[in-house]
Amino acid sequence: MDYLSDFDGAYVKTRLGKVYCKKHFEGNDKKSILLLHGFGGTTKNWTRLVSNMPEGFNVYMLDLLGHGMSEAPEIEYRIDQQEAAVAEAVSSLGIKDVYLCGHSYGGWVAALYAIRKRRMGGLMLIDAAGLESYFKEVDMNTRIGQKKRKEILDKVSVFNAGRMEIMERIAESNMLEEHITAEELKNINSPTLIIWGENDDIIDRRFAEEFRDGIQGSRLFIIKGAKHNPHYTHPKEVAGLLLKFILAGQ
Question: Which domains are present in the chain?
């Protein structure tokens, strides 16, 4: 699939604001995949991944609120607000039994979607954020935490020059959230695939193991040589894992 020629763009209304969606629709009888980008990202982050995906699937990509072409409403940008907007978009688009795939910040949104036991075909997490143990480790009140926050904001500033106030608000909100606990992971009963970069320099791979150990029946695959964005640096390998998971009915 080609990001530019095979996808239509449109806005989807939610109670929190309009979200921008890129959509490749083949039919109601096809399985549907929804991709959620990471913090500071957009649908464009999936360009290389979708180019390695075959026809025969309905594929949707959303810009989360405050990101890309979606609206940036005056809200707190809590993760539950992002999740609620995604859930409304899924309903409005008429997606049934969605296979929800989230990277990093988008993985946190996707995991919350599953924790809330919304109807879905499966959950796919790529170097996902949100774990309570991770945020305790990068406490922003410490020098290490402040350094990590600056590194992340410096990276997203390249593509969000006009929205840095929003990015800073989201980063601040992330630290104050009720993060995902080990107990909450046990509430996920959707089939789950976890993909992680071997050398992730933002969220260490040991957190991938925490997701795996907490979500019953989940499977973890480590992408050798990859860092935090394996879907971008190793798109063929990641696409293969996603498709195998979906076609297996998991």
Answer: 8-131+181-247 (3.40.50.1820)
